[in-house]
Amino acid sequence: MMRYSLLSLLLLLCSSIYAQQFFDENWKKCSSRKAMYIVEKDESGENNHRVRIKTNNELQDGYAIYRTEDFSNGEYTLYNDSGDTVKHMFYKNSKPDGSYRTWKNGKSLFKKTDYRDGKEDGVCDIYFPNGQVSARYKMEEGNILESQFWNEDGSVLEHHHHANIKPTFLGLSENAFPIWVSERLEYPRECIDRNVHGEVVLDIRIGTNGKVKDVKVLRTPHKLMSEEAIRVVKLSPDWTPAFKHNQPCEVVFKMSIYFEFKNNKL
Question: Which residues lie closer than 8 Å to 161 by C-beta, 6 or more apart?
Fold first, then answer.
């Protein structure tokens, strides 16, 4: 009985291991370390595969169902962690090809376009949550040939350069925020005593309301330095939010903060 149980357990573990496959961003098989897509058979059908997506070595929320026989051609549907559809598309020869749709928060249609041989081709429409088109692009082989923009009430946007803009800090130049941060930093006493110095690298997310929404540490010489950098960044006044497709959008940017102690000053 013991031998049978051990054999059953071994078979179960082996089947779990071999049921999992790993693919890179081009749907080519690869090692688990290099994988972007982690794939297992799905219970819903013979050719349906459940896909988890990995970026920056972290598994993302949600999952996808890829209906395919060869992982080069098929129908791909992405769901959020609530089970709502957020993307629906098709692959041909491992490239996007055909109808492509995305939904914002799994509720309202956000983007409707078509791909041909991996590149957008034809008319691409971007929608406000109320269903009004905010931007329309005429695409050819991934290039924008023409563009039109509307406001949420259906009126035409007169100044096209307002449709796609970067976030701004207090209406100043791109260097204004690093200067603002450096003026408020306090060098951690423990780091001074230990002669610790170096670069803290952060990912900073600015929300659609212009507020600092999230701060993530990418690299730091010392925990106290990253804590101090985050503390100051979160004190930031509201930004003027970015706009994309004539809609406010979240933006993530990378910022380096240098801790150098010279003459008892930061």
Answer: none
